[in-house]
Every structure is written in structure tokens, then in C-alpha cells.
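Entry for the shared binder. Reason: the reviewer on the internal report wants the predicted structure included alongside the sequence.
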Amino acid sequence: MNHLAYYDFRMGNEKLPMCRFALMVAMLTTKKHADGLARLIVKADLDKMKGPLKEKCLSVEKLLLEGWQQCQTSTSPEPVKTTAFGHLAVRLVLHLLGKEKWGREEGYESFSACVGQFAEDLKGKTHSSSPSAHEEGSSGVVTDLLTAKPKEKALLAHPNIAVGDRYVHKDHGDKIFELKNVEDDGAFFLHAPIFGMPVEVKAGLDALNEWKKTKKESQVLLESNIVKKRLPHNAPVVAEEALKAEAQHLLFQAYAHSSKPSEDQLGFAYNPHGLVCLKKVKKKGLQLYPIGLLGKFKEGSKATYVVFKGSKFSITPLKTWNPTLKSEDPGMLCPYFAIKSIDESAKVNMHITWVQYEGLRLPILENPDGLGEEIYLYRGQVELENKDKVEAQAKKKQKR
């Protein structure tokens, strides 16, 4: 504020008192501040007004003088006239400096638009898009500080103070207080611990700046019926995870007890990738089990899944090793996920078959016919997309 108070605004015979007033009001009402100080108007802005913006600055001074004269002759109530002129001053100077985004309302296209709105304000018609009329703590009424009560003066001086908000104080550690009431003789803050008696603190109105507003919530004790539902042995999320863990164990066990193929029987090809049968295999002699980590299955997903106790779990393969990695890098080669899917039904030689292992239903890939040596293995794309139908057919056959 010092650079404004001592700045020499003289332009010839003009000292621009109205522009100085407008700048001061803009600084006092801006949203741009830091460390309690307004940061909207800097000395460089004042130099621009005296230099490149000199002519426009003189025009603003003239408009403000005319606006003040209109206020003197207006029959509107004093609060209306004072508010209207204050808005005019802020709008004109912010438009002049191109800093309307830091004001309390939307910008105006020109000085004429600012003056036009001033005429409406002077008639008592509040600008509908002005947020200043709706901002917290702003009533749009000018307060007479000479007759105002101590409580009113304190609330005006400390806009962060509001009944019902939460505050902390350096002398009370991490306790959170709620402001319950403000009277002429002080403000009353209440800390309500979950155990023990509430703590009430009466603060002087001149010490309200020591209370810092906080977004932290006051400590609460959960109701017993909520706790009962969320204890691990009652919480559905724990039951779901336990079910998934049980299914996960069975998936690993199913793979371990399956007729696992050997490196002499299957080959992994890359560029393009695929799975190759290296030796002749009799009908239904090759059964490939999936293995991986289970997760929640989303209906409509194309992911491979298992069914356990009526719940579906998707299978995410563990990290796959490929030739671009080093030989010592971790990763696996899972035949089930290495088989390429195609649309040509004539080439499909591996089909999905649903099997059960200790109550776990899982899809495996099986050859319905004998396989020759050194041939690529393929699964059907259509079959993959309709795996739910395949599962249904498998269940139906089992019932027979």
C-alpha cells in the first residue's frame, strides 16, 4: 500500500485523486493477496498508468468525477450511492489495468459498459452476475463504523471468523474448536472431546486473528451399530477377499495337479508370437490350465475367469517373459495365454472346456482331436467372445 500512498500521480495540472481512490478500493477488495497483504496493484502498474496508459487514465479520472457528481444529485439512499460508486471505481481501474479476473465480479467489455452498470446500480438494481452480493460474509450493506457495535467491527475486521466454523489455536495444541457465538465482549469457542468435559474458551475480539480456520474435522466416536457392521468378521469386503484367497489357492492347486506340458511337447514362437505343438498328441491329450492372480470380474469383460461358490474372479497372468528381456529377468511362459486366437474355424484345434477342481470351476484349453507334430495351436475368437455360452453348455452336459 505504501507505493500507492507516496506515488506521484501528477500529469500536468491533474493529480488524479479519483484514480488513487479507485486503486485503493481495488486493493482492499481483491482476491489476490499473500501473507495478509494485497498483491493486485504493484508499482509497475502505476508506472503504466502514468506512461502508456496516460490518456486512458485521464479518461477514467473524468468518468469517476462525473460518477461522483451523479451520486451527489441522486435521491437514492446513501448506502446504495456509496456501494454503486465503489463498484464503479473498482470496475474502471481493473478494466484499465486488464486485471478484472482478480476482481469480485465478471469483467466488462468497455468503460462505457462499466458506466452503464453504474447507472443501474445507482437506481438500486444490483448487478445479478456480481458475486460480491453473494459472497460469504457479505451482505451488500455499508456498515457505519462510527455507530457499529464491537461485535460488528470485529466480524468486519476478521472475515475468516464465522459462527459454526472450526478453528485451532497455538496455545491449545491440536485441539479443534467450533466457534459457537460472538458477542460484544468476546467470542466463544468450544472443543468437544469424545471423552471428558467440553472445553470452552472465551477469546477477546482483539485476539481473533490468533484463531486459524481449519478444514480438519473434529474427532468423533463411531456408533456401535456402524462398528458392528465393519468389524473384520462381519465386513463383506473381508468375506469377499477371503473367498478370493480360497479360490486363488485352488487355482494354483489345480494347475499343480494338472497334466503339465513339457518343453519337449510345446514351443513358444515370437515375431509373430504363438504356441507350437512339437510332438504328436492324441485326442484330448493336451490340457492347458490357466494360472495367474485373481481379481474382481466385471460383467461384459473379455477376461478369462473362474467361478467359485457363485462368484466370478478374473485371471490376470503373471509377468510374461519374452526374448527382449534378459535371461535372468523374472517372468513366466504360460501356454494357456500364449495360444493365438483366430476367426478361421478350420484352423482352430484347441477348445475351451470347463472343469471342476475342489469346487472351483475353471476353463481349460483341450484338443478335441489328435494333433500332428510341428503345428501351430489356435483357439477360436468366436468361442473366446462367447465363453459364457460355452460354460453354460458344459454345465448342461454335466447334468445329463
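Summary line for the report: The chain has twelve helices and 17 strands.
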